Amino acid sequence: MKVEIYIIKERCKGCGICVEVCQTKVLELSEELNSQGFRTPNVINPEECLNCGMCEMFCSDFAIWVSIETEKVGV
Amino acid sequence: MKSIERYHPADSFLNTDSFPSVWCPGCGIGTAVYTFIESVKEVNIDLDKIAVISGIGCTGKIAECLKLNTSSVTDGSVVDCAVQLKEKDKDLTVAVFLNNADFLLSGAKDFIDAGKKGADLIVIYVNNFICAISENKIFPISPFMRMSIDNEFELPYNIPYLAKSCGANYVARWTPIHAGWMKYSIIEGILKKGFSVIEVVSPCLLYNANNGSIQDAVDRMRFYNDNSEIKVGESAENLDLRSQNKVIIGKFMDSEEKAG
Lengths: 75, 260
Ligand code: SF4
Ligand code: SF4
Ligand code: SF4
Prior knowledge:
The complex is a heterodimer of chains A (about 80) and B (about 260). Helix content of chain A is about 15%, strand content about 25%. By secondary structure, chain A is an alpha+beta fold. In chain A, the strands form 2 sheets. In chain A, strands 1-4 form a two-stranded antiparallel ribbon. A two-stranded antiparallel ribbon of chain A has the order 2-3. Chain A is globular. Chain B has one domain (about 20-255): 3-Layer(aba) Sandwich (Rossmann fold). Chain B is built from 8 helices and 8 strands. Chain B has an 8-stranded mixed β-sheet, with helices on both faces. The interface of A and B includes residues 7, 11, 16 and 46 of A. The site of one iron/sulfur cluster has 9 residues of chain B, from loops.
């Protein structure tokens, strides 16, 4: 199963909750800052992702989500 | 991972211009909004038949960020506005987001009236233990050990008990860490005919009500994960936040007839 993880860096506020709730340690807070000066998460080992949707559910800023549809491209 | 040309699954419900949102990093209000959107998706009702009313302050911004029929009204008249809307159009599903200022500070009477009438509303009350104007005063929901600058203190309210005694048909309490359960509670609340009250215990991160320090979102989430206990069907008298070591969460009441 190939899971795609999408992150809108400009919405992220660097709270780190997605990094914390991910049980398989897919994400990591990077040193990279977005335009508002928040540290944004990076995907470090995408093949471990279980598509559990925890990061998506707990992100209070609608900045991260997962999807298994790899072909369908919106807009 | 990819730069973004795609949409978040909730984006069709969101006013994307208002993002990044106004909430603090990791505030539970965002999770409450996400679960509300997920449950609306699941219930599959006509989006023209949903109205969301919110008041002032941080939860008031929910009306701005949702692309549904929303309205942000002055504090104290939120529940009243929702009741009247529901009376005008019986098919409408009316959801109300309340915070402490809209509820305990000025809208409590409307809330009790709506409960007594058995208005068919779903009330999502985000309890962040603070009301900004009460920064150095005590407040009906101030945590037990917190005192005002004049060393007054007050015992905090038991909201599920209040909701039950004024005639709610559905009462639940969750924290943002229990978003998966919260989603099913909101679905049940939407489908329930009658007054449904869901309390979301989501402490403010910006202002820790105990000592006024700024909190780390991850620590707060971990604290509430470790210190909450699910007890479904617990009687509402025991749900006081002051007399227990753990926050008791769960669904406490689900009945067809009015209690009260
Ligand atoms: S979907 Fe689950 S496993 Fe994948 S990144 Fe998110 S939290 Fe981690
Ligand atoms: S949970 Fe959301 S806002 Fe917080 S760090 Fe992750 S992507 Fe950013
Ligand atoms: S953390 Fe407190 S001040 Fe910040 S958005 Fe949440 S409730 Fe409001």
